Amino acid sequence: MDCLKYKYYIKILVAVWGNFSVWKDANYKYKNEKHTSSTTLPLLLGTINPNYTYIILSDTLMDKYDKISTYQEGLSKIKNEADAFIKEKIRSYPTKLKEDNINILILPAVGTFSRSRFVGNPNNFYALVYFELARNILRNLGSKLAFISENNKPCLELYLDITHGLNFMTMITYRAVKDILQIIAYFCNVRLIVLNSDPLVGSGNIDLNINEIEKINVIPAFNFYRYSDTMLLIPSPSGHEGVNALTKRMDRLYAFCSAFLHGLPVYMYYFYEKLKEDEIESIVKLFCNYVHIKVNVNGTFEIIQGLNFGESFISLLQGFLLSNLLEFLRVDVKDDGAIRMDDIERIKGIFKHSKTILQRLEREFEKIEKRKRQISSEFKDYGFYAEANYSPNDNFDGRNFFAHCGFAHNLIEVKKEGNTIFIKPKQRFIEEIHEALLESLPLGG
Which of 27, 262, 306, 332 counts the most CB atoms within 10 A of its CB? Predict the structure, then answer.
């Protein structure tokens, strides 16, 4: 897949860095271009020409600074030093490189060093790198996704450079990138290229190739779990309205994500739960407010993460990404949950990588289309048109519900306005459907 063949495409570079101040020069080579530098960044910017670049650093770089009185002061020192380093390196490149779309993300990590100790849970790093990359990629894709159609999906090409990665940061960032891209792949053509140079340390060789160690077209996947514990932060801060409000919405979010996972478009939009960036950011800010510094009498210091993200916070992040991507499809849902049949048919392409779901949906669409002339202007059970001797009943059959992508004859109502068919869930069964959706999700943790 070549992104340049697509009308709408975007390239993103993500790089994981350790302590950049101690790196030595090497002669890096990529795509028949060479450049001498202590980092791969200038050469990658010159050869890939990404629209956006994200440099991921950890707060453990504070260990090299003599005096830090506050955590924010330490972050500012890292940011300023990294800014200066990047500008120096890219301005040494033979041709002018873009500087304005390079973003530095400094995230809390863990580890013990000569002068400091960073205390916390490594999984907090995953939650934060997922949120930062997901929200930024959503912003980057925004203008492209506005033009989305089944025959003209935009293309996202993401390069992940792990040459300068450090400890668990590399693996966690790779995992977050892959998880994010697998959700985006429902809506875009996505390509992932993972880069890593030949080793410099201990080899005695400074002529280093930057190798493409993974180069794949990303297949959609939604690895979503339900957790019995809905705590977003542990321990849960008392009296925080943002945390409490989001916690109360988790059940509906689970139903929404389950409907998407199982290919139930009517219920996907009925339970649709739009999560805003600032809602998630308020939780992240609260976590960061509990990160503090402790200076010891012997001159060493500790950075302590006072809170941890709960497992359900990852489900929240997945719901945030999915709900914002679905918003770009611009499906109009009425207050009573009614949705146009045309809209459901238009978005069916997001399920095309599951032949089972897509074929079931197309079969249900065909059956409704055949009965289009019979459908009246008032909402009635679908069964009145689908069966010769239909009799309404109050039986909820979960197997039948999932097998027909939610189009069970007694569970939905249909009507026709002009030439447009509307479909909506039957309110009598909403609680049972909600429960079935929750129980169908795999349990995590």
Answer: 262
